[in-house]
Write a structure and sequence with these properties.
The chain is α/β, with parallel strands linked by helices. It is built from eight helices and five strands; from the N terminus they run ααβββαβαβαααα.
């Protein structure tokens, strides 16, 4: 299986003309989308919370093997509005199927802000894979819970913690192994709680939350 995945993801950057017509059309439609306005209250903003599965920890050498995402909109986690793929589940996954899944993921995000835990890790795999497979320079706006949770909940921790420690602090059941979708839903629940605290701190829009995430990341990495 690992050999098959390497074959899929080590083939070099693709030119748009090499992609199937339906994938090209999906990418053109995605590129034409306007990024959503982020000056509205969180209740009016669609966020996409995601987690990935990989063949190892190094984005330059290992491969993206799966992804799960769930939308949070109207102030509510919406499990019915979810997206998932698992390349590792099928050793016979074909190039065109990979391209279509990745294009479908871009369509699903609709350029919404993306929420995850340790965004540099997730970004490294997503950017490389989408660039190699689709020829797209994927540069979404990220909200990183690893750095933002201590900023919003300094009463519970002033430092960056493993995800399971945060789940324990909020009595969300941090112990045991979870699959990627379970992990994504846990992240969505944490993010929902964070939005309540953000409103209380007058970080009341998506734009302000992204600024807060970036500031928290910078300050905690440089001090």
């Amino acid at each position: 299986m690992v050999f098959g995945l390497k074959k899929l993801f080590k083939s070099g950057a693709r030119a748009p003309a090499d992609l199937p017509e339906d994938v090209q059309a999906a990418l053109q439609a995605w590129r034409s989308l306007k990024a959503p306005a982020l000056d509205e209250p969180h209740f009016h903003t669609r966020y996409v919370v995601l987690d990935i599965a990989t063949s190892g920890p190094r984005a330059g050498d290992d491969d993206l093997t799966g992804l799960c995402a769930v939308a949070l909109s109207g102030g509510t986690v919406r499990p019915a509005d979810a997206f998932a793929f698992d390349f590792a589940a099928d050793e016979e996954t074909e190039d065109v199927a990979v391209d279509r899944q990745l294009a479908a993921f871009l369509t699903y995000t609709a350029k919404a802000p993306l929420v995850t835990y340790h965004s540099p890790f997730v970004t490294g795999f997503l950017q490389r894979t989408i660039k190699e497979r689709l020829g797209v320079d994927f540069q979404p706006q990220w909200i990183d819970l690893a750095w933002l949770l201590p900023s919003m909940f300094s009463d519970r921790s002033v430092g960056v913690l493993p995800l399971d420690d945060w789940l324990d602090r909020f009595s969300l059941g941090g112990g045991g192994r979870r699959d990627t979708m379970d992990n994504t839903l846990m992240l969505a629940r944490l993010f929902h709680m964070l939005l309540v605290r953000a409103n209380a701190k007058e970080v009341a829009t998506g734009a302000k939350l992204i600024d807060e995430s970036q500031a928290a990341t910078f300050l905690r990495r440089t001090h």
